[in-house]
Write a structure and sequence with these properties.
single chain, Beta-Lactamase, Helix Hairpins, Heat Shock Protein 90, five-stranded antiparallel sheet, disordered N terminus, histidine kinase
Length: 499
């Protein structure tokens, strides 16, 4: 009886943070965006503040120096050192926003308001600018880690109300910008210190956003696992109206459709099993009568004419095949209904195999050989083990080639579990490699040209089910020197197992 459970909503447990999981990537992306935004904003703010600060100082110094030079009168000749140095010191005292060191150059003549008449921070580029431009020039220079502002201003003589001539004397003002550099460094530190707390604050909404995104994903993963384990009534709670809610709704719809489809398949499978079981049961009674009649007819076939005798033997043979098919269908139906039971008992395995071969008269010729060491005992269901050996040997005789060998030994699985190993080999053409994965399927024919066979097509499938009932495994393969080999492994401690 198939039952349908009420649909239930699951809640996913809190999962741990994986090294490169979706939560980590979401947080990394969120922090990266926050870091880029904060860094860009800080960099732009720092650049604008730095430029404004330096430009203010620079403009003040340049304007003041130009004004002072223009207001200062220079006598001739200009190379009178004592008078010129005094003028330079006077200019230096009037420096803004802070005092300058003023240098004068006239040809090879050098003088300054300081102790050294020559400056090491005045560059050739600034000298060329002073010669080319009557209004002079300026530049910022860093020397030994100390920033300087250097200003060049050529002096001129007025030859008329609107005309001047260069005098050849060029004055330079050199001002340290240490205070400005300190202020710039403070701006950089403030921008950096302001960005780091911003990243820490951005982590909180990042965690909240990641959690809101990952909650439905975790629920979907849990629901998929639950459905994979057979709980087709699993559903996800739909929250909100965003894309994740649409995903949850789509999952629920797909799960409902899958549940309906699986339910229909289960019901169809149950009907098919009942049909096969019922038909098998209904056929047993008339088949029993038919078998009794065919046995009598077989005994009298020698007294009939040739055509009638052939017809009688054909009917008898086909009735026997039908009886085998019905019995196999009933057996496989019991396995499908999980009604098969294992009645295990401690048996001498070698003796059990000999009885199987003797009961089917396979020991009366050289077609079957047995390699059965004595002293091997195991807990087996004698009837089901008999079916396993009979089906494997019969299959080898029908589709393989004589001689067929039945081998017996003990061994161990990789984890050290002792097992009983039974091998049935033949000398036939072997099994085609593409047929090996399907050899135990019901009604599978390895040879597509063989539409009819002496068996029911269920022998190997029933054999596999009996081996599984013992807790064992069976596999098919080919021998290196030709022929098929079927290997059965049954644990030696399987007593009392039931389906």
């Amino acid at each position: 009886m198939i039952t349908v459970r009420r649909a239930r909503t699951i809640t996913a447990p809190r999962s741990r943070i994986r090294a490169f999981g979706l939560r980590t990537r979401l947080l990394a992306a969120f922090l990266l965006v926050a870091a880029v935004s904060a860094g860009t904003t800080s960099a732009l703010t720092y650049r604008e503040a730095r430029n404004a600060l330096l430009k203010t100082t620079q403009d003040t110094a340049v304007a003041t120096f130009r004004e002072q030079v223009q207001q200062t009168g220079f006598g001739l000749p200009v190379i009178q050192r004592e008078g010129l140095e005094e003028l330079l010191r006077d200019l230096a005292r009037k420096g803004k926003p802070r005092p300058w060191v003023v240098f004068a150059e006239y040809g090879s003549f050098r003088a300054s308001s300081g102790e050294n008449p020559v400056s090491t921070v005045i560059t050739p580029q600034l000298r060329r600018a002073a010669q080319a431009n009557p209004y002079g020039g300026f530049e910022r220079v860093v020397k030994d880690g100390v920033p300087y502002l250097t200003i060049a201003m050529p002096t001129v003589f007025k030859t008329g109300p609107y005309s001047t001539l260069p005098s050849g004397l060029v004055l330079y003002a050199v001002m340290r910008m240490t205070d400005e550099q300190i202020n710039v460094d403070a701006l950089l530190t403030a921008a950096r210190d302001g960005a780091l707390p911003g990243l820490a604050v951005a982590l909180v909404p990042g965690l909240i956003a990641a959690r809101s995104v990952l909650r439905p994903v975790r629920e979907l993963r849990r629901a998929a696992r639950s459905m994979g384990s057979g709980r087709l009534d699993t559903r996800i709670a739909v929250r909100g109206s965003d894309e994740l809610a649409d995903l949850a709704a789509t999952f629920n719809e797909s799960a409902a459709q899958l549940e309906d489809s699986v339910q229909e398949l289960r019901e169809a499978e149950a009907r098919a099993r009942r049909f096969a079981s019922d038909v098998s049961h209904e056929l047993r009674t008339p088949l029993a009568g038919m078998l009794a009649v065919t046995e009598v007819l077989d005994e009298d076939a020698d007294h009939l004419d040739a055509d009638t005798a052939r017809a009688v033997r054909l009917v008898s043979a086909e009735t026997g095949k039908l009886a085998v098919l019905v019995e196999d269908l009933m057996e496989i139906s019991r396995f499908d209904a999980r009604a098969a039971e294992l009645n295990a008992d401690e048996v001498d395995v070698a003796e059990a195999i000999r009885k199987t071969l003797q009961n089917r008269h396979w020991t009366e010729d050289d077609r079957v050989h047995a390699e059965l060491p004595a002293g091997i005992r195991a807990r087996l269901d004698p009837r089901r083990f008999d079916v396993v050996i009979a089906n494997l040997v019969g299959n080898a005789l029908r589709h393989g080639g004589a001689p067929v060998t039945v081998g017996l030994r003990t061994g161990e699985r990789p984890k050290g579990t002792p097992v009983l190993i039974t091998e049935v080999t033949d000398r036939g053409p072997g099994i085609r490699p593409e047929s090996i994965p399907y050899i135990f399927d019901r009604f599978y024919k390895a040879d597509a040209a063989r539409t009819r066979s002496a068996g029911s097509g269920l022998g190997l499938a029933i054999t596999q089910e009996n081996v599984r009932l013992h807790g064992g495994t069976i596999r098919a393969g080919n021998r290196p020197d030709g022929g098929a080999v079927f290997t059965v492994e049954i644990p030696l401690d399987t007593g009392g197992l039931t389906a």
